[in-house]
Description:
The protein is of the alpha+beta class. The protein is 25% helix and 32% strand. The chain has an eight-stranded antiparallel β-barrel with strand order 1-6-5-4-3-7-8-10, surrounded by four helices. Helix 1 packs antiparallel against helix 6. The longest helix is centred in the first third of the chain and has 14 residues.
Amino acid sequence: MKEMQFRHEYKHYLNYGDYLVTRKRLAAVMKRDPHAGTEGIYQIRSLYFDTSDDKALQEKINGFSEREKFRIRCYCASSEDCPPIPPDTAKAKPDSAACMESRNSLLFADWHMHPDVRFIRLEKKVKQRGMGYKVSTLLTLEQTENIISGKCDWMAQSGDALLLELYSKMKMQGLRPKTIVDYTREPFLYPAGNVRVTLDYNIRTGILETDMLSADIATVPVTPGLFLLEVKYDHFLPDMIRDIVQQQYREESAFSKYEACRIFG
Length: 265
């Protein structure tokens, strides 16, 4: 389990025009994440946990300043399996036919994710007074299958601190797999301040599904037309990056993908 480190985090909603402009400006000054492949994107699938009375969901809805979520996360098997990235239509008007066709193909693509079972992580995300940290540990395919199916007694002898914590909360609080969240991410990195800026879109959920390892899950879009800008940094945000990510007329958002995807149950 990695050592915790609090980071500043904030989010903004973007429309399609904002997304195209921001994406181009970020690419001019920040590096692409080397894990994102040749197209600069990857597809993420997360399986979130919650209690029978939806403790994590209710804490988010009610705005608790201190809260936590457990999830298992994996990625797309290859960039070819990801939905197509939008073409460079920044020179076209936002309401032009080219922009609208690009936007619709991006947001409403009918496709199935093929999870890469070679790299699966258990993560705990903690929020405290506007800052956050994440701890994680690697899972094998067999361990992941066991957790999804409710076979968790082996976790007590795992010797892993995060697995032991999840095990205790599954036993004491009734924490169980709750919902799947899929989305596309474009990540950008800047070394000074350890800055990570991501553009997330095509957020989808599997209705009442928890088998995150299946490629046959039917998913539905939950936020059509929404693009989410997320900014994370350690102690400072360089002015050059701040100027790009500050969105005129766009207020900071407390958007949660997990909360949005729970609209279907």
